[in-house]
Amino acid sequence: MNQEQVDSRLKTEAVQSSCVRLEQDVPQMKEESEEQEEELLPVIFTFCAQRELNRLRYRMNCVPDSSAVCVKTEETEGDTEQSSDADCPHPHPAQTETETEGDHRKHTQTAEKPKSHCSVCNKTFSNKQDLKRHSRVHTGEKPFSCSVCKKTFTQNSTLSEHMRRHAGDKPFSCPFCLKVFVSKSNLSVHIRTHAGIEPYTCSVCNKTFAQKSSLDIHTRTHTGDKPFSCPVCQKAFNQKGYVSIHMRSHRGDKPYSCSFCPKAFTQKSHLTVHLRAHTGDKPYSCSVCDTSFSRNSHLSRHMKSHIIKSLCV
Question: What are the start and end residues of every segment in region (Disordered) (predicted)?
Answer without folding.
Answer: 73-115
